[in-house]
Amino acid sequence: MAIARWNGEIIAESEKTEMVEGNHYFPAESVHAQYLRPSDTTSVCPWKGTASYYTLHVNGEDNPDAAWYYPEPKDAAANIKGHVAFWNGVEVSEN
Questions:
Q1: What local confidence, expressed as pLDDT, does residue 39 receive?
Q2: Are the C-beta atoms of residues 27 and 69 closer than 8 Å to each other?
Q3: CA atoms in the 13 A half-sphere facing the CB of 2
Q4: Which residue ranges does the record assign to the DUF427 domain (predicted)?
Q5: Which end of the chain is less enclosed by CB atoms within 10 A, N or C?
Q6: What does the longest C-alpha to C-alpha distance in the chain come to?
Q7: What is the CATH number of the domain that holds 40?
């Protein structure tokens, strides 16, 4: 079981994540959507494609662009379509 936590709350938890470049990508349905706020930020990975971001909003605090996903990943990263990963202070642990 992989668990993502930030600011005292569990943001996501899943027994089936996809590991890519050391990051757990959580299935979208395992992420607690009430903590996600859309962001206009994007970035480009040469082999995964264009990433979109969410700002986490938890217990009255924001963590800008702390979650990302690939809406239309390139073929090499097709396994992470519909998945969300975290960084920027989000603690991801395995239990």
A1: 98
A2: no
A3: 22
A4: 4-88
A5: C
A6: 38
A7: 2.170.150.40
Q: Percent of the chain beyond pLDDT 70?
A: 100
Nearest to 4 by CA among 18, 21, 19, 24: 24
| Domain, as residue range, for 55 | 2-94
Query: How large is the average pLDDT for residues 5-18?
Result: 98
Number of domains in the chain: 1
Exposed/middle/buried for 23, CB within 10 Å: 0-12, 13-18, 19+? middle
The amino acid that residue 11 corresponds to is I
17: nearest Cα among 90, 71, 94 = 94
33-65 confidence digits (pLDDT tens): 999 999 999 999 999 999 999 999 999 999 999
